[in-house]
Amino acid sequence: MMKPISLSAYSRVVFFTGAGMSAESGVPTYRGRGGIWAEYRWEEYACQDAFDADPNKVLDFHEQRRGRVLACQPHAGHMHLAALQAAHPGLSIITQNTDGMHQRAGAREVVELHGSLWRMRCARHGAVEDLGAAVYENRDCGLCGGLLRPDITWFADAVNAAVFARAQQLIEEAELFVAVGTSGIVYPAAGLVPVAARSGARMIEINPDETELSGMFGERVRETAGVAVPRVFEI
C-alpha cells in the first residue's frame, strides 16, 4: 500500500480527473456500462446538427442531465481534493467532466476540458454562467436574442484550443501528476497524459481498473477516488 504523500514536497501538482471520479457519486457516465449513450443517440441530443434541427429537444435533454447531476453529491475524494487545493496554491485540477462536481466540493479555477453543464453559450457573445438549478435561467441571449446552447464540447465540435493550451502548460510544469478515474480512451484529452510523462513528473494513477494508459504511470493505486485521494495525499 502506498505511503501517504505530502504535497509540500512539490511546487506544481496536477490532478487530472475523468468520468470515474464522478461516477462514484452516482453521476451517469457517457460511455461504458450504464453510459447515457446506451440509452440515447448522441446524434439527436449532443451535436450542433441536433441543436440546429430541434434546439428545445436538445436543451430539454441537458436540463434532464443537470437535474440528475444535482441529485448527486460530491464524495470524499472531491472534498479532500478541494481541501488539498486550498492548502497548496500550486495544485491545479484539470477535468474531462462537465458536471461541476469539483466546484460544488469547493474547488476553484478548475480547467474544464470539455466545457460545463452550468454554462450557456451564444454564438455571438460567448459563454455565460447558468448555475444552481436544473432548468435553465434563459434559453435566449439577453444581448441579441439568439439561442443559447450548452457550453459543452459536443460530438463533432472542435475542442477549445485555449483551454487545452492552458492544460498542457500546467501539465508541462507539473512535478507530480495524478490521474483519477480516467479511462484513457477519450482523445484528445488522453493525449495530455504523455505530456506529463515526457516532462519528468512523478506519475500516479488512481483507478480500480487497468486503463489504456496505465503503463505510463510509475505508481498505480487500484482503489476508488473516494478512498484513495484522502488516504494517499496529506493536507
Structure commentary:
The chain has 235 residues and is α/β, with parallel strands linked by helices. Helix 5 (76-87) packs parallel to helix 9 (225-232). The protein has 9 helices and 11 strands. The model has no long low-confidence stretch (mean pLDDT 94). The protein has 2 domains: 1-26 and 74-114 and 159-235, TPP-binding domain (Rossmann fold, 3-Layer(aba) Sandwich); 28-71 and 118-152, SIR2/SIRT2 'Small Domain'. The protein is 31% helix and 19% strand. A hairpin with a 3-residue loop joins strand 5 (115-122) and strand 6 (126-129). The chain has a 6-stranded parallel sheet with strand order 4-3-2-8-9-10, sandwiched between helices. The protein has a 3-stranded antiparallel sheet with strand order 6-5-7, covered by helices on one side. Strands 1-11 form a two-stranded parallel sheet.
Mean pLDDT across the residues is 94
| Largest beta-sheet details | 6 strands, parallel
- Count all strands and give the number: 11
Please tally the helical runs, counting DSSP H or I stretches of 4 or more residues: 9
Rounded Rg: 18 Å
Question: What is the number of independent domains?
Answer: 2
Give me some keywords for this one.
single chain; SIR2/SIRT2 'Small Domain'; six-stranded parallel beta sheet; 31% helix; 11 strands; alpha/beta; 235 residues; Rossmann fold; elongated
Summarize the structure.
With 235 residues, the protein is of the alpha/beta class. It has helices at 19-23, 42-45, 48-53, 55-70, 76-87, 101-104, 161-173, 193-198, 225-232, and strands spanning 5-6, 13-17, 91-95, 111-112, 115-122, 126-129, 149-152, 176-180, 202-206, 219-221, 233-234.
